[in-house]
Amino acid sequence: MPLCLILQLLSAVLLSILLFFLRSSNIFYNISFQVPVDLTSDYGGIIHGSPAAVFRPSSPEDIALLLKSMYYFPLHHDVTVAARGAGHSTHGQAQARDGIVVDMRSLPLSITIVDGDGTSYVDAGGGALWIDVLKETLRHGLSPRSWTDYLYLTVGGTLSVGGISGQTFKQGPQISNVVEMDVVTGKGEFVRCSEQENSDLFHGVLGGLGQLGIITRARINLRPAPPMVVWIRVKHHDFDEFTKHGELVVNSGEVDYLEGFIKFGDAPQSHQPKKDFSRFGAARCVKPRQPTAYYLLEMAIYYADDDDDDAAEEKLEKVLARVSSRSSVEILEVSYLDFLNRVRAEELSLRRVGLWDVPHPWMNLFVPRSQIRRFNDLFLRTMSVSCINGPIIMYPTLRHKWNLNTSIVVPQDEAGEDVFYVVGVLRAAPPNCTVGSSCLDGLMQQNEQMIRMATGRGSSHDGGGMGAKQYMPYLKSEEEWREHFGQKWKRFEELKSKFDPSNVLAPGQRIFKRKK
Ligand code: FAD
């Protein structure tokens, strides 16, 4: 295989020499056959697939050149290409076994503020980290509206999956906050796209799992950045009350962020004043016994400016009156930057004790509102035989905030509900639960069992038939993908034939087989 790959790369070099006379090209210098270990795996640490080569573009044109050469001079028909952002996928999605990984982080950092028609935007490179986008926009008193919980992910990486957090119910996911993109298609064409221009590619790429092209720039809308945030956690013991309160807040739009967590055991008591709230907890395995389950609603209210204290206080009172008795409430005030970057401190402390780079058998689902109680029961039943190490996220969001023309798939509630739930079972494997061990296989099987029951349509008698959809799906065959996309499949398949007809891109998603 490496010989075939060398032939394929030779074609890229030949093309680059050809083009050299037209313009200077770096492509020859950008290919390396020495693959660093960290590029052979990902955050999940479960699937390992070494590429034959790493391509480190110094400009979007380099990416276009590589893909163009592969399309027009296919010296070997097995070679695939995967863009790799921060590599924070969990099931090999950014890998290209024996193919070429395009290291998007090697592109020069490009983040520029753009003013237009009374609104401000940021133009961010596809390989830029969201933390860098935040820091640059804050220098101008501005900020993107929609976030992920963790910011050390790339713009291209999250726009390829959706990009969601506690702001989504109000601002839509990140893919609903993009107005224009530059994309290099699987044919090596450099295309500018938006709602008005090349809209099929624009919609297809957003949430399109890297299948149609590589995002090299995204224009994202901005808002004035609030300096401070009131960060609130309200403890619930009753599941129905937890969901009722979460939905009340989401529908009233009174807060700027809302998430929820399922926890087990006694809530930690600390008499030290807190600087932030933990989501990972004390990195140890907790036996999820049902009687000890409790639920946290986490909310945030942004202050618009220093004079706004009273308004924020008023909002806080109103929200608390809706959701709680005061005894179960914790409140912190933190800067906007610290709030958005809250997972970083936990990452660093897990890294210090060697618990960040462990396998992560994660599972993410969108569950229809009408099924969330059944899903909670299924989750508690399935987990009763294990221990849980990592956050369990569960919160409501609103369907009408999602641009359904994009490639993302969200559930269609039979009851026609606007609310659906984001569920993340974000476990870290306990010590000794290594790749290939029966213990890790057991965790993966538990996930599969829950996914099968939650995503199944069939009957509800056997616990299935919830009509949920996987977010960042881990699926293994075209058949399963067909089922996942449902009515969107035909269009997605057509877009794939149009923009990546040889099925070169993002093989790690396991959707389309490379065409021979
Ligand atoms: P990678 O893992 O490198 O790539 C992911 C996919 O996108 C691959 O198929 C790849 O080929 C493709 N891709 C990468 N770059 C591009 C590009 N420029 N153009 C086209 N395709 C590209 N997600 C949320 O929505 N909300 C969260 O709160 C959240 N929190 C997270 C916290 C942690 C600790 C981790 C590890 C992940 C979290 N995620 C969250 C998931 C994360 O958004 C996705 O895994 C995302 O794809 C990771 O971005 P990345 O840059 O690491 O992409």
From TrEMBL:
Keyword entries, A-Z: FAD, Flavoprotein, Oxidoreductase
GO biological process, one term: cytokinin metabolic process
This enzyme's EC code(s): 1.5.99.12
A Pfam family: FAD_binding_4
Names of required cofactors: FAD
Any GO molecular function: FAD binding
Keyword Flavoprotein: yes
Domain FAD-binding PCMH-type: 47-225
Entry's family note: Belongs to the oxygen-dependent FAD-linked oxidoreductase family.
Protein name, UniProt field: cytokinin dehydrogenase
Species for this entry: Ensete ventricosum
